[in-house]
């Protein structure tokens, strides 16, 4: 689990360095298998599935949150392999940035083709136990690089320490492409705004969930969420 000593993100401090928010991608056309329908909202969050689904689920997740990775694995068989492809549930992923590692991974999952966002998102979640375990071996000098110097250089240091360049290479990303995304100020602003908007809605832990825009109080695991979904289907 991530140590408390990792410095939290300072959204206000970063905000002045960043460029305007990018425009939203168009909504997807109708699909026979809704697992192929991916849309990017005005806030930069990604939605998988039927935009007219009966249940519209929002996941508020952090990449360094072990409970988020557990939720991702437990929910996959029913949520991603049944409810979404059948058009019953649409899933929106909103990223909550808790620390510089979260930011780095979020910049990478948002890197490149929006249609392949969920491939990268699910890949980092599924392998969390392996890359997060590396943290225990890092020296104080290494982690100090994550909190000083130019912002993009901090993220490159994190990507190097955790070997995220190799992970991205599996999806045919070159080091130069990764570095461009780690230095994308507009993307960073968009992700920071997602975190601030989630906080304004009362999201104070991850994973948290909302259905049809209403944050579910006390629901932080797949078993509890599944019951909430079933009552609405």
Summarize the structure in short.
With 233 residues, this protein is an alpha+beta fold. The chain contains 11 helices and 6 strands.
The name CATH uses for the topology is: Ribonucleotide Reductase Protein R1, domain 1
CATH architecture: Orthogonal Bundle
Q: Could you estimate the helical fraction of the residues in percent?
A: 40-55%
Distance, first to last CA: 35 Å
Tell me the number of structural domains. Answer: 1
Largest sheet, strands/sense/barrel: 6 strands, mixed
Whole-number mean pLDDT: 89
Q: What is the CATH domain class?
A: Mainly Alpha
> Whole-number radius of gyration?
17 Å
Weakly predicted, low-confidence segments? 1-29
Query: What order do the SSEs take from the amino end to the carboxyl end, as H and E?
Result: HEEEHEHHHHHHHHEEH
Helix count, DSSP H or I runs of 4 or more residues: 11
Domain Thioredoxin-like fold: 44-230
Keywords: Isomerase, Signal
Signal peptide: 1-24
GO molecular function: isomerase activity
């Amino acid at each position: 689990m991530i140590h408390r000593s990792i410095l939290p993100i300072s959204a206000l401090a970063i905000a002045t360095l960043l460029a305007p928010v990018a425009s939203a991608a168009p909504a997807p056309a109708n699909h026979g298998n809704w697992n192929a329908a991916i849309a990017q909202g005005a806030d930069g969050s990604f939605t998988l599935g039927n935009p007219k689904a009966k249940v519209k689920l929002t996941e508020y997740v952090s990449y360094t949150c072990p409970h988020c990775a557990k939720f991702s694995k437990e929910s996959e068989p029913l949520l991603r392999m049944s409810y979404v492809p059948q058009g019953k549930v649409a899933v929106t992923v909103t990223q909550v940035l808790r620390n510089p590692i979260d930011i780095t991974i979020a910049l990478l999952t948002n890197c490149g083709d929006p249609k392949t966002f969920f491939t990268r998102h699910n890949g980092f979640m599924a392998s969390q136990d392996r890359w997060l375990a590396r943290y225990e071996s890092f020296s104080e000098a290494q982690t100090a690089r994550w909190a000083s110097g130019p912002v993009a250089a901090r993220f490159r240091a994190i990507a190097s320490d955790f070997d995220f360049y190799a992970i991205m290479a599996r999806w045919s990303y070159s080091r130069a492409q990764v570095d461009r995304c780690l230095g994308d100020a507009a993307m960073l602003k968009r992700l920071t705004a997602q975190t601030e908007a989630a906080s304004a809605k009362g999201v104070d832990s991850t994973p948290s969930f909302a259905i049809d825009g209403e944050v579910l109080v006390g629901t932080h695991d797949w078993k509890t969420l599944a019951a909430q979904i079933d009552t609405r289907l």
